[in-house]
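Look over this one:
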Amino acid sequence: MTEQTTELTFIKSSRKRRIAAFIIDHFVMTFLIVSIVFVALGSNFMDENNPSKMMVTMLAVMIPGFVLYFAKDSLKGVSVGKWIMGIMVRDENNQNEIPSIGRLFLRNLFIIIWPVEIIMLATNDKKKRLGDKVAKTVVVKNPNKPTKLPRILALVGVGIVFFVFAFFTAGNAMKNSDAYKIAVSEIEKNEQILTETGGIKGYGSMPTGNISISNGQGQAQLEIKVLGNTKDMNISVYLEKEPNGQWILMEIRK
């Protein structure tokens, strides 16, 4: 078994595959870190008036998150992006050997200066970036890579999960915000809307729009679907908030 492993000949990965793998990894790891941050902050983070508390919470999640980011190739020299692109990291002097976790971690620390790394990869004759030079590693094609179908499905799956999570997280956070609650309260006081809908029986699952708060002052533009007994309506609501004050309705349009 050892003799067969020694006889394996590896082919260096193309620059295109490496860049594609980097983009996929960056997308996946950033999505994972941001998702955990949102969960840690809670659904009412838009109304949080304690910036210090938010910063501590974010740092508590992001510091271990970055450690995980730099350790992304620790599983046999393969990350999510590299698995999808069919490549892997190996020792430059013995390509049958997987570099230690410490060397793989050191290699990825240089991603911090990613513009330099991309330039190095694009111009280096040996297809090495600075992290590869320091950690003495090389990126090669994986001779045991899965067929294209499962790798394509994995890539599509990552994209779907991202968009679904982003949609529901943003919508849920908006729906739990004080701005949305005030907007709904004002809609239910509007006689014209009550008349045209024949009475309100509910609201759409997810509002859209944006809420911006800075130093306690905020603006909110919300698009809310009102479900009526006789007619549904899409209502636009604009609100403003003074520092440490309540949201105030500025405009409501059908």
Summary: Confidence is low (pLDDT under 50) at residues 1-5. The first strand starts at residue 87 and ends at 91. The radius of gyration is 25 Å. The longest helix spans residues 148-175.
